[in-house]
Specification:
It contains 20 helices and twelve strands. The protein is of the alpha+beta class and 436 residues long. Helix 11 packs across helix 13. Bound molecules: protoporphyrin IX containing FE. The site of protoporphyrin IX containing FE has 24 residues, from helix 13 and helix 18.
């Protein structure tokens, strides 16, 4: 629908039942909303209608309360802190690979979901959810899917006891039981592990008050939801794109073999893996895990010369902007090379915005990019993923953009340079890479 709307121009009015909305499709207009005047807007209706799930967590809260929480949570996402998570990310990926065998058939989306959930639980809450991971993952997935059903979410209040609402209530109760267990264990032990949960538990307001269990629950469920499915989806789309683009796949393997030569990647390797990083950037261009953003206008004003009224919805879609031929040559092609030579500096700032922008920009941006790059590098060194023929890979625009029926693959073991030519282990240099 948004792709069709974009044909009418960069700012288009639409009415959805009783709601008046505008769809904006020019990077400058998007920048004006997200960066220029963010206080003129609240989060969109669908997210707000999901407050019984996210509560007053970072994604859905507004105003001074949001600002206070953002300041509390931000230190957990500072570069130095995130860098310390690199080993955990690689360790859990290797752990996943221990159960993989060449010739196995898998749903790589489910594998990525489990992996990123375990990583977010361990890094932010120092919790090992290995035992619960499958159930927690399923509940979270369901909440995101049902929560994105526009008609149901907006027109059936969450307290009406329909079968779907009762199901949602059960899933929330299940996840809450696990989160409250983490919280109470940590409160009882008084342990300060320096992770996000400790910081939230020990953070004090100016009046000395601390966060209640309910506030902690809201922040943790938000980070679980926002912090795992998005990264998992970006990886699932990446595997799918790689499997269809053998030239890109071969270049990726060449870089990994040259720089890592069979050993596990570490934080220091990242600057020497530019092609690997570009594969992720390009995959998030074509299949942005957050495929669209929405806001509600809270004060009358003008946007792009048009009057917008309080209560109107404003929508923008990464899916459409990222495929706009005004900013990208052959936009439908998967070409990581397009990011070489600072493309980002040559296109308008909001021609590429997988993580949103302005004050409400994704707090997990660097976390996610590092995680996706390390997982890609660790797995692609060991396996080539071949698509199972005739399995339909279909994008589902839920709150995130994910493959509706998963991505079924057959694992093919790879020979890395470690097994082919051991002497190259110490060879990689930045010079050698740029010469390539
Ligand atoms: C590829 C992975 C990811 C993508 C594409 C992504 C995308 C986004 C986008 C577009 C927003 C802005 C939403 C808006 O403006 O309405 C956002 C917000 C947010 N993201 Fe992410 N995200 C990713 C990973 C993560 C991770 C790993 C975490 C945490 C561990 C995280 C936590 C959050 C939070 C808490 C917010 C709300 C921030 C605020 O409003 O203050 N995200 N994300």
């Amino acid at each position: 629908m948004f792709t069709e709307l974009a044909r009418y121009g960069d700012i288009v009015g639409i009415r959805v039942v009783n709601f008046r909305n505008i769809f904006i499709n020019h990077p400058d207009l998007i920048e004006e909303v997200l960066v220029g005047h963010p206080r003129r807007y609240f989060k969109g209706r669908v997210l707000r209608a999901n407050r019984h799930v996210f509560g007053e967590g970072l994604l859905t809260s507004e105003g001074d309360f949001w600002l206070r929480q953002r300041r509390l949570v931000q230190p957990s996402f500072h570069r130095a802190r995130i860098n310390a998570y690199a080993d955990t990310m690689v360790h859990y990926t290797q752990h996943m690979l221990e159960s993989w065998r060449g010739g196995d058939e898998r749903d790589v989306h489910q594998e990525m979901m489990r992996l990123t959930l375990r990583i977010v639980a361990k890094t932010l809450f120092d919790a090992d959810v290995a035992l619960d991971v499958q159930d927690v993952g399923k509940s979270l997935e369901l909440l995101l899917e049902l929560g994105a059903n526009f008609r149901r979410t907006l027109f059936v209040p969450h307290w009406v006891p329909t079968p779907t609402n009762l199901r949602i209530k059960r899933e929330i109760a299940y996840i809450e039981s696990i989160l409250y267990r983490f919280i109470s264990e940590r409160r009882t032990s008084g342990r300060d592990t320096g992770d996000l949960l400790s910081m939230l538990l020990h953070a004090q307001d100016e009046d000395g008050s601390r966060m209640t269990d309910k506030q902690l629950r809201d922040e943790t469920i938000t980070l679980f939801l926002a912090g795992h499915e998005t990264t998992a989806a970006s990886l699932s789309w990446t595997w799918w794109l790689l499997a269809q683009n053998p030239r890109v796949e071969a270049k990726l393997h060449a870089e990994l073999d040259r720089v890592l030569c069979g050993r596990a990647p570490a934080l220091d390797d990242l600057p020497r893996l530019p092609y690997t990083a570009n594969v992720i950037t390009e995959s998030m261009r074509l299949y942005p895990p957050a495929w669209g953003l929405a806001r509600v206008v809270v004060e009358d004003h003008e946007l792009g010369g048009y009057p917008v009224k309080k209560g109107m919805g404003v929508a923008m879609a990464q899916w459409v902007v990222h495929r706009d031929p005004r900013w990208y040559d052959s936009p439908e092609e998967f070409r990581p090379e397009r990011w070489e030579g600072d493309l980002l500096k040559r296109i308008p700032r909001f021609a590429y915005f997988p993580f949103g922008g302005g004050p409400r920009q994704c707090i997990g941006n660097s976390f996610a990019v590092m995680e996706a790059t390390l997982i890609l590098a660790t797995v692609a060194q060991k396996y080539r993923l071949r698509l199972v023929p005739n399995h339909p890979v279909v994008p589902l625009a839920s709150i995130t953009l994910r493959p509706r029926h998963g991505v079924r693959v057959v694992l093919e073991s790879r020979q890395t340079c470690a097994t082919e030519s051991l002497p190259r282990v110490n060879q990689p240099t930045t010079q050698a890479m740029s010469a390539d």
